[in-house]
Write a structure and sequence with these properties.
47% of the residues lie in helices and 7% in strands.
Length: 295
Amino acid sequence: MGQGTRDRRRRSRACLAALAAGVLGVTGCDAVGGDSGPGPSSARPTPVWDTSPRSVAAVGDSITRGFDACMVLSDCPEVSWATGDRAEVDSLAVRLLGRDRAAGRSWNHAVTGARMADLAGQMTRAAAHRPELVTVLVGANDACRSSVSAMTSVAGFRTGFESAMRALRRKAPKAQVYVASIPDLKRLWSEGRTNPLGKQVWKLGICPSMLSDADSLDAADTTRRETVGKRVEDYNEVLREVCAQDLRCRTDGGAVYDYRFGTKELSHWDWFHPSVSGQAKLARIAYRAVTAERA
């Protein structure tokens, strides 16, 4: 056998080996039970998001119910940032659907006083409408307890949110989910404590873990507020992490938490919940997040 013939055979064997390696590289994960599809096995599928959903269901707590925005100690869902119909709010549903369509294609299942443990039931009720978008704003009541020790644990908060997402997916697997961050409760205390009337209303039992003894700056009360503030930060991280595991979920990137609500954007009934102006701001934040081409 001549040298030229041997060289040609070596080149042929090398080509066959490279081809085999390429085939195994594509199918190797399937051979051990995975299903990565084309491309590298570590690649995460591209998130699925429609910037113009055609129906909206809202879940959450008193913020989404418009509590104390119109009258004292009362819900006012018509000014809800998510589904309200008042022109001065220009809610997310109205922005996305138009006022006429929003009236019949948006639903508010939020409940004043709700905590994360209540969210799975709300998700189940919301999913019955087969909404294309579900908005979530919940968690303040998990931190606003009678004491620091009574706050929902971070682990319990995570379990509750994961359970809520599973409840939604069982009934509405393709619904998109927009998750708003929990407001900075310590910032709300800082703003509201400047109003004597607000502090009197706080004594009725509004968020005592943060708002009790509002004027006290001693070490114990300062530590208490810092502990509540840190718990809210931890809750927001849970919302971000759990949402990131779902291809049809996106958060506001911390925009609500970061927003510095002023006294004009707080209820003049309790100086804690969003006013009509504050609800309008929440609607603007949500609309930017939902309609962004990329989260």
